[in-house]
Amino acid sequence: MEALNFNWNSVFFYLFAAIACGFSIAVVLTSNIVRMAFYLILALGATAGLFFLAGADFVGAMQLMIYVGGTLVLLIFGVMLTAKGPFISMKTSAGEWLMGAVVGGSLLAVLLAAATSVKAWQTTPDQPAQAQVTATRLGMALMGARVDSLEQTNAEQRRGMSGYLLPFEIVSVHLLVVLIGSAYLARPKKRAGRRVVGE
Amino acid sequence: MNPLYTPVSVSHFLVVGAIMFVAGVVCMATKRNALGVLMGIELVLNGANVNFVAFGSEYLRPGVLGVGLDGQLVALFVIVLAAAEAAVALAITLNFYNNHSTVDVDQADELKG
């Protein structure tokens, strides 16, 4: 059967790539903020599929949980709190569209030329690689130990493989500071003339 | 040759990343709604993440000395920092909305000389 010779990895890559690119462009083209949020969910979800296809299972799961499940829910709350009357659909003037199209088109031309011009990036594996779960190696690297450096035979390469304990701590404290700061920024205003001291 | 029968390469992922990145840049430049600008930032960060994961992938280039696991680790940091950035930017937008009753970024010109 001819149909069974499909490279299913490629088939699903093109499916997810079409969803991701198509809905990214739809986010740009629509002027309705509610539709933009929905298209963004689909684009980011399809990106998680691309991560799974590239063998990054843990990053794909985190993309779904943190990005689609956390950050976008936050954005949608922002849309719901501010979307009324004229703010749901804000039109952009034709001149700004023209400028955006020119700048975006030239940037896209440069990036596509760069992405397709290097020979080494176009070589494809002869046979599919062995499936490997990355969660353990990623967790050990965040704790400062690169267990994947043990199988690295190149000594020079092995020396450059450092753990990520310090960046992990910095990001943790940064996240804590940011959440306290944003809760303080978005707090409700106290009404003037009202005593806030308890009885 | 039918592309559905041949395996994909790193270049395919880079093209997807480039399209998402450019869509985000144009979104940031043309949207007047502050939340639309935020969504453009999310698209830009995701386009960059696609590139990081593609270069770090062992599936696409087995046996090649690429960035290896570092690509996935950087992508994880980008995801966490994007969450932090969205929280702060949303708080600022809501504050702006409470004080000025609008989310139009063109109206935020109080500092204009």
Structure write-up:
- The complex is a heterodimer of chains A (199) and B (113).
- With 199 residues, chain A is mainly alpha-helical.
- Among the domains of chain A are: 84 residues, Four Helix Bundle (Hemerythrin (Met), subunit A) (Up-down Bundle); 46 residues.
- In chain A, 64% of the residues lie in helices and 0% in strands.
- Chain A contains seven helices and no strands.
- Chain A is globular, with a radius of gyration of 23 Å.
- Chain A starts with 7 loop residues before the first helix and ends in a 14-residue tail after the last helix.
- The mean pLDDT of chain A is 85.
- Chain B has 113 residues and is mostly helical.
- Chain B has one domain: Helix Hairpins.
- Chain B contains three helices and no strands.
- The N and C termini of chain B lie far apart (60 Å).
- The model of chain B has no long low-confidence stretch (mean pLDDT 88).
- Chains A and B meet through α1, α2, α3, α4 and α5 of A and α1, α2 and α3 of B.
Biggest beta-sheet profile of chain B: none
Q: What is the H-and-E element order of chain B?
A: HHH
Oligomer: heterodimer
> What global shape of chain A is seen?
globular
Specify the structural class of chain A: mainly alpha
Q: Which residue ranges of chain A are poorly predicted, with pLDDT under 50 across at least 5 consecutive positions?
A: none
Task: Determine the fraction of residues in helical runs of chain B and give it as a percent range.
Answer: 55-70%
N- to C-terminal distance of chain A: 82 Å
Mean pLDDT of chain B: 88
Q: Identify the biggest protein-protein contact and residues per side.
A: A-B, 95 and 80 residues
Helix content of chain A: 55-70%
What is the typical, i.e. mean, pLDDT of chain A? 85
What gyration radius of chain A follows from the Cα positions, in whole Å?
23 Å
**Shape assignment of chain B:** elongated
Total beta-strand segments of chain B: 0
Number of domains of chain B: 1
**Beta-strand content bin of chain B:** under 5%
